[in-house]
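Hi Y.,

Following your request, here is the sequence exactly as I used it, all 264 residues.
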Amino acid sequence: MEHLKRANYGHPDQVYRQGGLQVSATPYRAGDALPWHEHDEAYLCLVAAGTYVQQSSSGDMDCAPGLLLSHPQGHRHANRFGPLGARCISIFLTEATEGTARLFSDHRQLRLPDAGRLLDRIEKELRATDDAASLALQSAVLELVALACRAQGERRPAWLQRVLQRLHDDPLATPTLQELALLAGVHPSHLARSFQRAQGSTVGDYQRGLRIELARQALGDTRRSIADVAALAGFSDQSHFARVFKRVTGDTPRDYRHKVLRAS
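Below is the corresponding structure, written out as tokens. Let me know if you'd prefer a different format.
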């Protein structure tokens, strides 16, 4: 088994180093597999695109865009990438605080409501070359880390992961609050209040965020029209889709597609 320092398998296409912070973006090809390995330093992994299965002592974990993984020092794992490959953002921090020490005390999977927005900012600033890029990148990364520290520090309901998994398994499904409450074993009003307190958004807004993530991935395929992408993401009305997409990402679907094409 290989021990890795501030590096990952693969070949990063963007790397940022400043002081105690290192951020790298690494693409992986479809069907790639990484052998069992561990890192000599704790780090965060934000899934930016594609899917993969992570194997560890706690079992297999399906990793999809927007998922943030906290890897403590020496965490052993192996990866198998899906049919579309994947892209991962790795974040190493030298200067530990009480919050990050708790964050890195165990292997965690965090689904943050603002992960998609911050992912877009991090990707954008990794590519930027102006004088403000470094400051902007640090700001986005530290906001992500702060959200992760708060999320892991809160006492989360034992049933929350079951509900999140249900929503992530099929973002286009429309389970009622009553159905989710039955799955959780709690009253619907209790589920609604506890979900918003733990995730920072309502169940409906969280589900819309998952659909916007589907749209973000689909907009990279120029063979699809904006109307096709809207339908794929579960929106029957293109104008409604455009309004929700802009509210979540800050860009119209067309502007977002142009950014993706320029970046590629």
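The radius of gyration is 18 Å.

Thanks again,
Q.
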